[in-house]
Amino acid sequence: MKFSSVRLVTEQFEAVLAFYQNLSGVAPVRLADGFAELRQDGATLAISSQQLVARFNGGAAVAAANRSAILEFEVADVAAVLERLPADVAVVQPITRMPWGNLSLLVRDPEGSLVNVFSKPL
């Protein structure tokens, strides 16, 4: 078995897609109206509109309902990522050195999913 991707379901498809494109610096691959992937080394983040899930998956997932998962992105420069995010991004935890050495920033995407942007100690 090969882990393929994480998919976020959203009512705000364009806003969420733009957020993750801006965050990652990766251009999305649009595969259908309301569905795109941000393909990175080791992982793919898929973004799907709520309408597609309602149509093809019987409404199995609900947009903006995540309260338990954290999407994590390892980067070389956490401060540089924060600078490219919009000024109104919801910062949950400012850039903080964690006890295990990581430099970490916690933000929320436009629909409230928690995103950890971190760098490992040198």
UniProtKB/TrEMBL annotation:
Xref: InterPro entries: Glyas_Bleomycin-R_OHBP_Dase, Glyas_Fos-R_dOase_dom, VOC_core
Domain annotation VOC: ranges: 2-120
Protein's recorded name: VOC family protein
Signal peptide limits: none
Entry coiled-coil feature ranges: none
